[in-house]
């Protein structure tokens, strides 16, 4: 049986939304986004938009943080905002009868955030504590080092949530300016799912964004080419080392996007069926887990993988990773591996559509990547049409063993 989605495009004035209508339960989820995100923060104010996102639900208009939280809780409304590297998202989930209140509170949060001093102090302390804690672990250290080396002159190379230094000195004006620059009446991408008709959604959208400033957020800077780097080691006192490895990927619009996903699943993304898991864990016991995939940002896909292992095993584990990377680049997947990967990817698709929140989020991601409305419905046919020769050609074109960049945080041996 072929899994197909009935996605409707809804027009609400100058805005459009994708909708999957489902009245089996009286719940509606709505998600929206703008391009921009933390990339628009000034370097000295890194983390401003992430703090702003956290503060939007800490009081708005005439409601302080307690009153605003009570208003959401009393009606069972889930409302949240998130600053990402290249975008800014908002979403709510609510029972159908309380949709007007969900829309009112979401609009109030975007249009009239309070940023009360007590809330600002509390959110800042939480953000600083999180940034400081990240630097105390190998995992946090390796992430910061990897991205800074790969994109040293671009916002993608710095932490989305800021650093201890920038957050500690972050002025309120930078947070307000960041929110004002990002939350606009234009440039919106919308998706919805649940017990709502197209006409009802079209009527609701204008109220949700009423009163926001006209225009769109500034465009984030384009992502430069991944800067490959020599093996990077960050010394952190710990019995285990955290490892990040990666290489350049491809644009999300590249016609080989899905074929490359299949290649990466066989190589590093298929749990115990992947070549890296088999070689690193099953045969040699070098690590508990290892995996890699495409990290999408700024319209590009970057290949990123991770693992962790005892310090004494790091050198051997990395040698195996390079060996398997080179073998896949030279040979591509076998016919059996290709069949297994395609079967998983086609059979797993329905699991992304198990509740309205996940459905709205998936539709929003499709729109952010500029996919056509029928893209998912045709995906299974495209995947089943892949051949070993075609995926081998993609592996040769895109996998770059000589450009595989590796960062390690801990006290590794053999590197």
Tell me about this structure:
The structure is a single chain. Strand 4 and strand 5 form a beta hairpin. The protein folds into two domains: about 10-210, Cytochrome Bc1 Complex, Chain A, domain 1 (2-Layer Sandwich), CATH 3.30.830.10; about 230-410, Cytochrome Bc1 Complex, Chain A, domain 1. The protein starts with 7 loop residues before the first strand and ends in a 5-residue tail after the last strand. It has helices at about 50-55, 65-75, 100-110, 115-135, 140-150, 165-170, 170-180, 200-210, 255-270, 275-280, 315-330, 335-350, 355-370, 380-385, 390-400, and strands spanning about 10, 15-20, 25-35, 80-85, 85-95, 190-195, 230-235, 240-250, 290-295, 300-310, 405-410. It is α+β, with helices and mostly antiparallel strands and about 425 residues long. The chain has a six-stranded mixed β-sheet.
How much helicity do the residues have? 40-55%
What name goes with the CATH superfamily of the largest domain?
A: Metalloenzyme, LuxS/M16 peptidase-like
Q: And the CATH topology of the largest domain?
A: Cytochrome Bc1 Complex, Chain A, domain 1
The major β-sheet equals: 6 strands, mixed
> How are strands sequenced across the largest beta sheet?
1-2-6-3-5-4
Overall pLDDT metric: 96
Category from helices, strands and their pairing: alpha+beta
Tell me the name of the CATH class of the largest domain.
Alpha Beta
Tell me the overall shape.
globular
Q: How do the SSEs run, as a string of H and E?
A: EEEHHEEHHHHHEHEEHHEEHHHHHE
CATH-derived architecture of the largest domain? 2-Layer Sandwich
Total helical elements: 15
Number of domains: 2
Ranges where pLDDT stays below 50 over 5 or more residues in a row are: none
Q: Whole-number radius of gyration?
A: 23 Å
Structure summary, number of beta strands: 11
What portion of residues belong to β-strands? 15-25%
End-to-end separation in angstroms reads 50 Å
